[in-house]
Batch of 4 targets.
Target 1
Amino acid sequence: MNGGDWLWAVGGLAAVGVLTGGIGAALRMLQDGKNFNPSFMAFEPLGPGRYWILGAWLPFFVLNIVGEEFVWRGFALPRQEIAFGRRAWLVNGIPWLLFHAAFPWQVLLTLVPITLLLPYVVQRRRSTWAGMVIHAGFGAMGFLVLAFGLA
């Protein structure tokens, strides 16, 4: 990655964070104390005797990020660019959002910024690595916030 790629990746990650945070805040206000998440989405912060989960999570995290970026941006996006040109990022992002359809609608709504901005940055910079930086930063922050009970 060159300096411009890093700038776009860090800027993209910041934009995704701000937009996701804004959507999350709006949803919390609208929920008015109700929890719409299904029971399988309940998270308890890690405590003594459960910190091993951080080590177990690391290989999954790497495989998930690298795997998704290889398939969605390394394989699919270049082919979509041939078919859809400058709008390929949108054609890539919408199915990537739908790929996460097992999540509740509130979670899907919070994923809209990353599923649209990340492919845009990758297409604009022609750098799958920029997508990996954004995806890894977003995924790590989300997991660590939940793991340590910060949200």
Target 2
Amino acid sequence: MSLLQKQQAERPLILCIEDEPDLRRDVAEELSEAGYSVLEAGDGLQALDLLDIACPDLILCDISMPGIDGYEVLEAVRAKGDDHAGTPFVFLTALADPREVVEGKRFGADDYLVKPIDYDLLLATIEARLRQVARLRSLQREPGDSISEAVLRDQFGLTAAEARVALTLTEGFSLAEVGQCLGVSRTTTAYHLRNIFQKTGARRQTELISILLRGRNG
């Protein structure tokens, strides 16, 4: 492997799914200049084909696209299994309707950026999400010692984002620390936590952690 190939292999890989060619090209150029490797897809079907042969570190995806929309792409990505289930997924959209944000979070989206794109915010969001993934990986212990995101998703029907919040709680972090660790706001943490309580049937945090850890062995 050449030095250039090695450097490219070490750069985080971002998949950008956007049906507007000019915007997609602009995003790709910004990401490349910021030190990322970029895969481009002009629609959802092309993106899913790419995911059969590549494993990006983060996915940027438009919502309104011909063929399958961004929600369907996200659902298909999460259904692909462990290789993609925990991949940070950020929606790009021209619609600033709060209902769109809620819908995206229900589908398991990690973030939501509104067009026209603020590239400083885009890069900051990507950096935060990649740091989040690195933190979570650093928390993982040996198999058998730690509950996994996959177990939480399968056992309790949690989304990827909810599973990350639940996993962080089982590692002994306080509610205030969860948001800091994952790079999300208190509002987002509370939103995911409410869903986790509903899905597990827990009423208190101590009860929730007990249920989650039992689920690991169940």
Target 3
Amino acid sequence: MVERVTLYRAPTTVADADAIADWLRGRVDAEVAVRDRLLTQVRDDDLPEAFADARVLSPYDPETGNTMLGIVRYEERAIENPDRAGGVIYDGVDVQQALNARLPADERGLDHLHVPLLDRVLGTWGDHDGRWHKRVNVLGQPALVSVPGLYEAPAKPEDYYKEQQRHAMLSGDTPPREVLESQVEGDFLVEDDPRTTEALKGYVLQAVHYLRTGEAFCDDERCRLHNPHRQPGVVDSQLRDPEFCPDHAEAYQ
């Protein structure tokens, strides 16, 4: 039984942990609290190396980790100054294990769920297709929610990639993201999207639901507990009514 939920802020992002917590309090029978950035609170001398060890090296290689001194120094700076981090994918399971080991011993039980909003891109390895997949959340303890993953993990509308290819053929390079976003019709979330907080509410609730029931995601595309693979599906499940499918409305409406 989940009795306590603690969210952690991601101050370098537009995600509002306090607003998510307020929404969550009306839907779960648990004490909901908010703390400042988790990586700052649990940092120790070995955490930068743990992040270096969790780095994804290639989209098609399950092996991770580069603990050369320069990489570890980068991770030290990224923990201390998160504005400087970016462009790296981390094994979400490895990061989860590293952070779990650093939670206070008396708060590590499954009755107290920790949900850090992270400014890192997380991925999980897909045995079925032999490549890494970016994720919005990694369920468990702690349950990791990647704010940049909200923009990068679900695929954008097909026209986005067609326009990207067309531009590359004409000019020989990849167009700036802002150009593509202005030229492609369709609803999808972009970096620092003002809808970020609203969209993340459902992903945080998924973490609570998983610990409560053992159910990972809902198959109904209209439900906030759905985990879509494409951006239009994120908009449908997280930003449009109804909030929940009939099966989950009774529990969370």
Target 4
Amino acid sequence: MSENEKIYGYARVSTREQNEDRQILALMEMGVPQSNIYLDKLSGKDFERPQYKKLLRKLDGNSVLYIKSIDRLGRNYHDLSDQWRIITKEKGADIVVIDMPLLDTRREKSLLGTFISDLILALLSYVAETEYQTIHQRQAEGIAAAKARGVRFGRMPKPLPENFQEVYQRWKHKKISLSQAAKECGMPRTTFYDRAKVFGKTMIKNS
């Protein structure tokens, strides 16, 4: 490292996973001071991240940016390529991807070296985006399959009021209107109607 060189690290975890320690440790092992590590706990779908933006303002021609893997920087193929260009071309900084030694812009400054780095970046970012989309597609398919089996998602419904069965029976036999039934149970009309449908099916099943 040259005397004037400044090294930074960037780490990212989604809000659902809090295991940034592995990334922080890998960055520090590469010699990045902890004070120069920027961490976002946000999705990688875009670059609207406060710590990343703060880091970007720090980078210049004497900077080296370390990231553990390419998907920690981002998952969107086109946005990732654009940010790589901003960092390496506009800012003039170098990037080192720890898990992919070939993605180290300090290694080879020739046209061929730049071409190889850009080619590898394009391949890896495409794979990262495709993998992310595949995971979400599988999640969606799993949720759809679970719903088809009758699995319910979301918050548990509130317990029925004590007078629900008595009100339900009067509404079912058209002695009161839907609005009256809902009002007596302290529910919106749509909620009473939905709960009444489920209640009616349960009664038939248990009879």
